[in-house]
Structures are given as C-alpha cells and as structure tokens.
Design brief:
CATH superfamily of the largest domain: Dipeptide-binding Protein, Domain 3
Strand content: 15-25%
Shape: globular
Number of strands: 13
Number of helices: 10
Structural class: alpha+beta
Order of helices and strands: EEEHHEEHHEHEHEHEHHHEEEE
Number of domains: 2
Strand order of the largest sheet: 6-10-5-9-7-8
Oligomer: single chain
Radius of gyration: 22 Å
Helix content: 25-40%
Amino acid sequence: GKAADINQKPIGTGPFVFSRYQKDAVIRYKGNKDYWKPDDVKIDNLIFAINTDASVRMQKLKAGECHVTLFPRPADIASLQQDANLQMHEQAGFNVGYIAYNVTHPPFDKLEVRQALDMAVNKQAILNAVYQDAGQLAVNGMPPTQWSYNEDIKDPAFDPEKARELLKAAGVKEGTEITLWAMPVQRPYNPNAKQIAEMLQADWAKIGIKARIVSYEWGEYLKRAKAGEHDAMLIGWSGDNGDPDNWLGTLYGCDAVDGNNFSKWCFEDYDKLVKAAKRTTDVAERTELYKQAQVILKREVPITPLAHSTVYQPMRKEVRDFRISPFALNAFYGVSIGK
C-alpha cells in the first residue's frame, strides 16, 4: 500500500481491529479475537462517534446513545456528577494551556512588549469564567505534576498600569493592532478558546493594544501557525510520555521552531540546558538543568501560561474498568459493559 493511505487503512496488533472510517462522522473497530491477551478484549464493537459540540455529546450520553464521552463544559460538570445513571472520573490534568507570542513578528521581538502583554492578562478572571472549578492557574510552561517542575518560579503581579509603561518605553504606539488566534476546538487545556480570546482582547485593549481575533479549521490553524502567520495565539499541550523534555524541548526548544514551538523562540542559553538534560540519565542532574531552563523560559516570556485543567471523563454507570490516561488517550484495554 501507499504511505498516504495509512490513516485510512491502518495496520496494528492491538486489542481492536480497524473496520471502517466515515470522515467527520464515525470510526468503527471490532474486537481482536486473536489478541495475545484475551482479557483486554471485552468489547465486540468499539465505535467512536465524532461530534464537536460539547452539549450534544452530553445529551447523547444522558440518553444512553453512547457509553463514554469527553471534554464536558465546566458549567455542565455538576449536573453530570448528580445524574444517577452516570459516573464521573477525574484526575489532575497533565496539561497546560497558554498564549504563544510569535517573537519573529514585531513588536513581539521585544522582551518588554511580551512582559507587558503577560502582566496585563487577568488570569484569575479567565480561570473563574472559563475553567470554573475545573482548573488551576498556570505559572510555568509545564504542569506541577511533572517531575523537575520548578516551584520557586512565580508569576509577576497583574499590573495593567506597569504594562502601559513598558509598552511606552518600548516605543509601541497606542492603538497598535495585532492578531490573536483562537483555537476552533475544545481541548482539556482550553475548554473555550473563543471566550478566552475575547477576555484577552478586553485586557489588552486596556493597555492600548487592539487584538483582532482570528480562527481557522483546526488543521489549517496548526499549519498556518507552524508557518508563523500569527502574532499571538492560544494553544496548549497534554503530555505524551511523562518526561520533562516533552514540554521544555518539544514546545520551546530551538529544534521545534518549525514544529510545536509556536513562539518561534530560540534562545541559546535555554536550549543548551534542555539538550544537556537529554544527554544524561542522572535524574538529579536532569532535574537541576530543567529547573534552570524554566527560570530562563519565565524570564524571557515567549509564552503566557494560563491554566492546567482538571480532566473530567463522564460515562454511563455500566462502564467497567475505564481509566483516564494522563497522556490524553482513550484506551479501552480491559473495558467492559456491565448490566
């Protein structure tokens, strides 16, 4: 077969065998009767119904039209928890939602400008309005559940007046226009990018910056962002493997400038520390190097961390042995449906 067909005709050795994919609608799997560990295959038919509307997903769950769903809106969590026909799994999110400043676009190439925008963001208001009880304020470029997290790093105070002074000193004129990109999709680290973008727009207007909100289809959004078309953008990450490099290298390293480093920020001293940490297996040494790198990341402000969300996964009462993955996966190994 052709490499281009891999998404349509996948080959694997897992507990479920791909059956059919209908674009933007459904993906069907069948239980793999030849799987080496039969106890992991307790479902005959596994169907992923694709739906981008959180309210519709919850309605289908309550009506019994699906067994497991994801990404409930924070405002819906209490009612879902009270539904006698449902169960709600939750755990601290291994994620971070943030604003990435494209440092290749003036005036974001100036540290003072990034500092000003950062301290003008009312994070607590965003947390209260968007994440509600389903998140915590982010200070750093990775979550506090990640080993080597530097707890000594603190946020600057929310200070719009000082932000105005920094912009004036940097020569940024009142009414300067920028683009602010808002994700078109819901993710654990950002349950409502449009609302956050509107709140940022209002925050930055108070310091004389006019932000025009832009959005694209998700694939186009990522493609254009990797090409560096944005000024500032909302984005985030859920950890893949539990290693600090999955944040500090993957998201902010020089080698990722054409990939997931949406700030296009390449800082030599920072990069040396992150790469040195990858070259040793000594956990204590790696921890110290990563802590030093986090200090530089905070000082140079290529991003404004916003929040780490709690991950909630609602499902029907009859679902057995489903576990939330810290890596944002939905795995059905050993999952069954009871009576």
